[in-house]
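Could you show me just one protein sequence together with its fold in token form as a worked example?
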Amino acid sequence: MKKMNYQNVKGTQDYLPNAELIRRDVRRTLEDVFIQYGCKPIETPILNYTELLASKYAGGAEILEEMYTLTDRGERDLALRYDLTIPFAKVMAMNPTLKLPFKRYEIGKVFRDGPIKAGRFREFTQCDVDIVGIDSQIAEAELMQMAIDAFERLKLDITIQYNN
């Protein structure tokens, strides 16, 4: 009988209690700020149709090479999400009756099969906040202020740079 080799897949990691408690505290802090600004939580599937995830880049971007793809028993082409933006665009397209402006946040796992090096992972948590349905720079200013407030609560010193 062969001895099992217990190790993580390269580019993934376990979070033991001390680290996971910090991660959850950061997440709660961020969610508190987002909610304070009127953002609503959503959760989208990790598994999507490959065609949907490839649509943003029209086959040209290197991110397509980093998608984890698979075929299910029904021979459908599927992929693990590599960001939270395209799944959110799908939510908006599927739910045209959502009241605008719509402010949402999502914190979830994403996956990329890119080169593994220090500080780069295949599986990681991403945090997105978006405001849809406002034709004004006020939304951008609000998102920047939200970021400032979140980092202040986390006691992290930041500088925000922007352009037009």
The CA atoms of residues 24 and 30 lie 10 Å apart.
